[in-house]
Amino acid sequence: DGGITQSPKYLFRKEGQNVTLSCEQNLNHDAMYWYRQDPGQGLRLIYYSQIVNDFQKGDIAEGYSVSREKKESFPLTVTSAQKNPTAFYLCASSSDYQLYEQYFGPGTRLTVT
Amino acid sequence: GQNIDQPTEMTATEGAIVQINCTYQTSGFNGLFWYQQHAGEAPTFLSYNVLDGLEEKGRFSSFLSRSKGYSYLLLKELQMKDSASYLCAVRGSSGTYKYIFGTGTRLKVLA
To answer: What is the C-alpha separation between B23 and A63, in angstroms, rounded?
Structure first.
């Protein structure tokens, strides 16, 4: 079955540590995205990538970094520079040749204490 | 600037019809999307409008007016499982893969 996987579902870290969230898709989509969602809020774009080896900052990129070395994978690193990292992180992908809808992974809930 | 507005919360009764509105101001337009999100879960795609008019999909319909920067999602024959947040999103101009999301409308369906 085609889809997007994110792991782990829940992640706990101490303040000051970097943490990497994984995102893999087997939908053959070119574009991939990372969003952050805080309680009662909509989705805010962190980074997106339209093609391998290229990515663009979204609206809240500070304190985050990404890489896109393979079409299937778009990992997100939450660095110690991110002041409020505790949030629900969603990865998504989309195709430019179909309906353009975004497919979302199940999300990773990150808690930093 | 770019902005998408939706009501924060709505309440409706099981079996009723509810309309969730969305207004947008974006630089460029290449489609408007509605997603459903249950608490703690990922959003799932409901509908897509790129031309003016109504798109119907079972109990869900979505309407778009590009000249007014306005869309609505219509849910008919409400069921308890429809209690969720409904997110309106706009895709930017052709050539950009960026989507802008509203803050979502939390719908409570009461028995």
So the answer is: 31
Mean pLDDT of A44-49: 94
**B92, burial (CB in 10 Å: exposed 0-12, middle 13-18, buried 19+):** middle
Residue entry with tokens 């574009």: A31
Closest listed residue to residue B84, CA positions, set B33, B43, B56, B45: B43
Q: Which of residues 7-46 of A touch B (CB under 8 A)?
A: 31, 33, 35, 40-45
Candidate from A42, A48, A103 with C-beta closest to B98:
A48
Asked if B10 contacts B71 with a C-beta cutoff of 8 angstroms, the reply is: no
One-letter amino acid for residue A93 of the chain:
S
Pairing of strands A4-7, A10-13: unpaired
Q: How many CA atoms lie within 13 A of B72 on its CB side?
A: 10
Q: How many CB atoms lie within 10 A of CB A39?
A: 7
Rounded CA separation A49/A60 (Å): 15
**Other Cβ atoms within 10 Å of A77 Cβ, number:** 14
Determine whether the interchain pair A45/B103 forms a contact, defined as Cβ–Cβ distance below 8 Å: no
Does A68 score more than 70 pLDDT?
yes
* Inter-CA distances, B50 with A33, B3, B93, B100, Å: 21, 18, 12, 15
User: What is the average pLDDT score of chain B?
Assistant: 93
**In this complex, which of A48, A101, A109 lies closest to B33 when CB atoms are compared?**
A101
